[in-house]
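About this split. The held-out portion is used to measure sequence recovery: a designer receives only the structure tokens and must propose an amino acid at every position. Recovery is the fraction of positions where the proposal matches the reference. Here is one held-out target exactly as it appears in the evaluation file.
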């Protein structure tokens, strides 16, 4: 199903062909009728009506932006003052945000209408949205399949036309992998180009908030409205490199054995299409590209174990029944964290422990620098590095829940960009014989989002 773009809807609003109220009602009605479990919560009618009134006033006063009146959704780990935000965990089931994330404040300024919060893997840990404490989200293209994760609720919501655009967060692929699985566009912006203020921290040196949309054009409009330096996040910066296409792309040599044949043939079709557009595409050695996954599964749990320490039944979150103060921590964390969250806290605590710190954590930090150097060097010569976004199309609900390592392998192509702090864009590139979407990914130079958008638009034309 094709849904209108932000620009098309904006034109209709400007020309008074539709009202903001009608536009928002159309999406909210679809969201309410949907049985995908994409939303953890659709906000109260009165809440949405108040936002609609603000947007309508902006049109009347001539201060409307291109996002004014657009129904959008927040991943359930981004704070919206006065609203519950749970990280899709039991731990924060009743936690109400006391302030707005910077991206939310920017959406309010732009007059967008935030209609709800979307389901996700608990605290953004997972590749299928099955780690949510509130049941899996279904893929709109085949409801027996996962939508990917961890931003699976946002992906399904956009793909099924339940909102115009949605926020995701990407620590190792959580925007791009679900975007590929559901046939939408997802951008991992350069680390630091979007404020993390008000995003629940998973791996602080990896986390980035980004757009999930129907088209590359929408991704640019949405991203431009929430990027930028923010005094609340010391790692945020304002930088952008202008587009200047050399028409040269690189593909890393990778082991094709583990890749689904339909993903490979689709990828080859896109490669051929780009060559017809005048691109040179070289297969290059990036010797440590595939090591990024191992590095990620050391650094990320280390940061997770530290970031989630505050959820202890005392400082934040709910509290389980306990007989003594000493038991509160263990009882609460044992009862209210899901199994994957507990697994990662254990792994993270282990790799940071006194006897193993040098063997794991320090080695991973060193390798991270090598991976970054390799990517940076390649991107001096090439516009971007091109890969499939994921090794397979969407897998079945329940298929990988008992095999964490095979689940982790779905991050093979997405993780290197997070490790190296480079931006990466996933664009839908076709469908498998069974009708499941697949995507290709461009990894760009730091702050080279504009080049990624230009490349993504070419794929939209040739696919
Ligand atoms: N799927 C990856 C993981 O399980 C990525 C998660 C993310 O990007 N938040 O950690």
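Reference sequence for scoring:
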């Amino acid at each position: 199903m094709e849904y209108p773009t932000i620009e098309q809807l904006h034109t209709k609003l400007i020309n008074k062909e539709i009202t903001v109220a009608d536009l928002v009602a159309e999406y909210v009605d679809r969201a309410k009728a949907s049985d995908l479990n994409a939303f953890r919560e659709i906000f109260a009618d009165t809440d949405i009506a108040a936002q609609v009134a603000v947007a309508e006033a902006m049109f009347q006063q001539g201060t409307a932006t291109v996002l004014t009146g657009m129904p959008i959704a927040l991943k359930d780990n981004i704070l919206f003052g006065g609203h519950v935000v749970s990280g899709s965990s039991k731990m924060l089931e009743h936690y109400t945000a006391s302030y707005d994330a910077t991206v939310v404040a920017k959406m309010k300024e732009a007059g967008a209408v935030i209609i709800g919060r979307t389901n996700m893997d608990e605290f953004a840990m997972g590749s299928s949205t099955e780690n949510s404490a509130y049941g899996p989200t279904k893929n709109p293209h085949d409801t027996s399949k996962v939508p990917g994760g961890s931003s699976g609720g946002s992906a399904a919501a956009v793909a099924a036309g339940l909102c115009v655009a949605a926020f995701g967060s990407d620590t190792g692929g959580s925007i791009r992998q679900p975007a590929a699985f559901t046939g939408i566009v997802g951008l991992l912006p350069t680390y630091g180009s979007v404020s993390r203020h008000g995003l629940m921290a998973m791996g602080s040196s990896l986390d980035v908030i980004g757009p999930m949309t129907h088209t590359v054009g929408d991704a640019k409009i949405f991203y431009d409205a929430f990027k930028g330096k923010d005094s609340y996040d010391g790692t945020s910066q304002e930088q952008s490199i202008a587009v200047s296409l050399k028409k040269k792309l690189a593909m890393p040599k990778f082991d094709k054995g583990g890749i689904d044949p339909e993903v490979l043939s689709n990828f080859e079709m896109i490669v051929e299409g780009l060559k017809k557009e005048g691109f040179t595409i070289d297969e290059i050695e990036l010797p440590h590209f595939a090591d990024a996954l191992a590095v990620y599964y050391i650094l990320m749990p280390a940061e997770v174990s530290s970031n989630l320490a505050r959820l202890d039944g005392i400082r934040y979150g709910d509290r389980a029944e306990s007989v003594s103060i000493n038991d509160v921590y263990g009882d609460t964390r044992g009862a209210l964290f899901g199994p994957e969250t507990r697994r990662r806290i254990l792994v993270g605590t282990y790799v940071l422990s006194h006897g193993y710190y040098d063997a794991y954590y320090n080695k991973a930090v060193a390798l991270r620098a090598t991976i970054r150097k390799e990517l940076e060097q390649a991107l001096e010569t090439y516009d971007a590095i091109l890969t499939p976004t994921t090794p397979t199309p969407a897998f079945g609900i329940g298929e990988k829940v008992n095999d964490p390592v095979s689940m982790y392998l779905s991050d093979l192509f997405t993780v290197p960009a997070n490790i190296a702090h480079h931006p990466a864009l996933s664009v839908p590139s076709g469908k498998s014989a069974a009708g499941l979407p697949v995507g290709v990914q461009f990894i760009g130079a730091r702050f080279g989002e504009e080049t990624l958008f230009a490349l993504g638009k070419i794929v939209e034309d040739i696919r």
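Annotator remark: The first strand starts at residue 39 and ends at 42.
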